[in-house]
Structures are given as C-alpha cells and as structure tokens.
Amino acid sequence: MPALKFPYLRLLADPAKDPIGRHSFARPMIPVRLIGPAGWIDTYALVDSGSDDTIFDHELAAATGIEWQKGPSHEITGVDGGKLTVHFRGASYEVGGHRFTADLGFAPMPPSIKVILGQSGFFEKAIVILDQGNNRIEVKF
After folding, report:
1. pLDDT tens digit sequence for 12-28
2. Which domains does the chain have, with CATH numbers?
C-alpha cells in the first residue's frame, strides 16, 4: 500500500511574541477522525514521536459519546514538567480512511492542539516519516 502524504500545517505566529520574530511556523499535523457511539468528529492532530501516548481532547470524546471519565487514569508529565491527568479508554479513530482501535488517552488539551498522535496508539501501528525539509509527513500502514 502506498504511503499517505500530508503537508505540514502552517500556523500563524505573533512576531511580537516569537523569540525570533516568525510570522508563521510549520507543524507536523494531519487530519484525524475520532469515532464514538454518538458519531464522529474531524480535527487535526500533532504527530509527536516524543509522546508516549495518543491523547485526544476530552471535549472531542464527549461530543462523540465516548465516556472518557470511566477509563483508568494516569498522571503524565510533559516536557515542561507540567502534570496532566489522562483517562484511557478503548476507542477508534481514523487517519486517511484507515481505522484503528486503541487505548486512547483523553484529557483537557490546549486550544491549539486538540490531539497528539504518540508512540502508543499511532507510531506502533505505522511507519512515519517526518520530513520537515520538504514540509511533508508520510504515513504507511
């Protein structure tokens, strides 16, 4: 099966707040669909090889009928040392029409990133190439 190819998503930056004055920056973000008993919702996910887990915003779970609070919880630590309580539930999501069921994490996420595709739940299921030089992400299942 050929690889799926996605361009990096270009996001606007505030040059006054950016330490080197950038007006925009590219992020390895790809479209995903979270699927629950009440329907589905499309959004973008940050492809993050440094994340141990795949985590969706808890509001996306609620919108699709996933009872995210009923899963076991675990406190994780971010790269900045911040703590986040994540609830894990078996759920399904799609990337490029490929559906996966995995133990996904659900937690309050920042407005700019609603989903993180991490090692568990994503990288373990795919071959992923992050090609920043060409602003391209390749995913092969």
Report:
1. 888 888 888 888 889 99
2. 4-11+30-140 (2.40.70.10)
